[in-house]
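User: Can you help me understand a structure? I only have the sequence.
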Amino acid sequence: MHNVSSIALILAGGHGRRLVRPRPKQFVEVGGRPVLAYTLRAFANHPGVEAVAVVCVDEWMNVADGLGRDVCGRKYLGTFRGGESSVLSARNGVEALWRLGCCPEAVVLIHDGVRPLVSARLISDCLETCRAKGNAVAGLESNEAFLVSSDGQCASAYLPRTGLFRAQTPLAFSLETFRRAFASAGESGMQQAQSVFTLMAAQGVWPLHIVQGESRNFKITYPDDLELFRALLAAGQGW
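Assistant: Let's start by predicting it. Here is the structure, written out as tokens:
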């Protein structure tokens, strides 16, 4: 099982404070199932993904483990302890996969547990691009310009939309490449990184190969995002 060539590493370590709910957003139930269950199902059902693992906040590890085993069946590798940030959680997950003896050349797809509508097409494209070019990151071309503000009230500059992409997940590299980058960054570098892809870029892993993302592959962060997910499920997208 540990000699698999592709692994989905799902990050479910956040506390979801911006949703103002008693449980982390990945465990909020929508349509009778936790958000995380939809994310797990997308990868478990994909024929190109051979194994799935979850990185989770301590107090919810048993719940995540039960979901993983129920949704993913024999593809499920296990549940690993999360860190103080998504980057540290990813590092913990990569180290756990390494200790399990997973193949260094295996493609690891790191994905946010609160992006439950990731499509089979996007997963396939990330796998294929990573194998052909060495890495892949889902990115959605911007259709709007950006205001630049230091205080959130007044803008002092703008960024034109041309050439700008919003980074999404999955983000794919080989297990060995991820491990080497995390080791090189050290604890201080990981604490400063905004996301896994910015950490990889800071370690000199260029170019990053963009895979066309999707608007429905949004990250559930605020209450409006949760309502949009409910509406899409009601319209027949999701489970």
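Now, to help you interpret it: The chain is about 35% helix and 25% strand. Helices lie at 35-44, 61-72, 86-99, 120-133, 175-192, 196-202, 223-234. Let me know which part you'd like to focus on.
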